[in-house]
Amino acid sequence: MPTRPRTNARRRWRTFLASTVVLAAVAAVGFTLWSNRQDEPVREIPAADPGGTPLPGTRQAHGDLDRLTIAWNRNWESYDRTAFGPGWSGRGGEPVLAGGCTARESVLKRDLTEVRLADSNSCMTLSGVLIDPYTGERLPYDRFKASDIEIDHVVALGDAWRSGASEWSAERREQFANDVGNLLAVQKRANQDKGSKTPDQWRPRNAYWCDYARRWVAIKSRWGLTVQATEKSALTEMLGTCPPPA
Predict the structure, then answer these.
(1) Is there a single domain that holds both residue 187 and residue 229?
(2) Is 25 found in the same domain as 131?
(3) Number of domains observed in the structure of the chain
(4) Which of 91, 187, 226, 227 is disulfide-compatible with 132, CB 3.0–4.6 A?
(5) Does 69 or 51 have the greater pLDDT score?
């Protein structure tokens, strides 16, 4: 009988030691997981700057065009539109830009006239009118009706992929896709006819050649994309329609 208290004490001591070891092991694992997580970069949703790539003057556009690298298209067979982020895959999920609206919302507000916005959401365009830059056609817009207006990437995502974007990070591609300086509200049919064609393959109406070429060159210059020889020749011709600098 006198040995029972000592035996019970030993059991309690062994239980305590075992629990301590287990707790220490759990704490070590938890610390390791926490430490590893701290080392992982936190991915913020990429967003283009509010104004996007600015439209350069004619002289600057000529200079930027001369400095662009001429190269053949590459990696065209691996193009995947979803590589530019979920917002342009047709499944929603557009990132919100610094101004609080998505790229599509920002472009509609910028390019339409007679704009009426929702009272509860200043990003939502309810109605307006577009003078299509590609065709010159006047197009009414009503958010609740089928529309003949689409948002076009001037330098299409497919062309960007072929001229350098295939080598970018996913974050950089998403930033490019949401650069509002590369986005225009345009006539649906013209946008679909254009597709991912370059200016040697498709052009808007003659009256818009100057602005179209200036915008195209600005995008390729800012994002470090290449041009093909025939593309550069077409852009040079289109820039030739610009008024002489003052």
Answers:
(1) yes
(2) no
(3) 2
(4) 187
(5) 69
| Number of C-beta neighbours around residue 4 at 10 A | 8
User: What is the C-alpha to C-alpha distance for residues 95 and 47, in angstroms, rounded to an integer?
Assistant: 6
Cα distance between residue 229 and residue 11, in whole Å? 85
Cβ contact 214:239 at 8 Å: yes
Can you read off the two tokens belonging to residue 236? 């040079």
What is residue 227's DSSP assignment?
A: B
C-alpha–C-alpha distance, residues 158 and 162, integer Å: 6
pTM of this structure: 0.79
**pLDDT tens digits along 198-208:** 999 999 999 99
Domain identity same for 125 and 4: no
Domain carrying residue 16: 1-40
C-beta of residue 158 within 8 angstroms of C-beta of residue 88: no
